[in-house]
Amino acid sequence: xxxxxxxxxTVGKVRMWLGDTVSGSGPKPDGxxxxxxxxxxxxxxxxxxxxxxxxxxxxxxxxxxxxxxxxRIGPRSEDFGAISEGWARRARQLRAQYGGAxxxxxxxxxxxxxxxxxxxxxx
Length: 123
Description:
The chain is mainly alpha-helical. It has one domain (10-113). It has five helices and two strands; from the N terminus they run H-H-H-E-E-H-H. The chain has helices spanning 10-18, 36-45, 50-66, 80-98, 116-119, and strands spanning 71-73, 76-78. A two-stranded antiparallel sheet has the order 1-2. Helix 1 crosses helix 2 (36-45), helix 2 (36-45) packs across helix 3 and helix 3 (50-66) runs antiparallel to helix 4.
């Protein structure tokens, strides 16, 4: 999979609006970039409309982040569900502005911090 960033291209314009502009420092949970091929496939799906393609990328990123568990180590925590929701919120805003059909995804968040049973009334 390849990465290029040139704002004269439609792939580059999508990257610009996503903030996915530095190779090796991308928005995916593992820190990688969306590939040129992924963006091109979404451009085709969205009839080469940049705003709708950015929305589709946001939906894809929300789905990717939804599969990452929240981490808690002592007082420190990383809430990756919030990152997923941020991408989903941005996708909804873009869909409201530019239209197109949203890509459907689902998420299931499970509490696993040693206190889950007590918090849910299962003591």
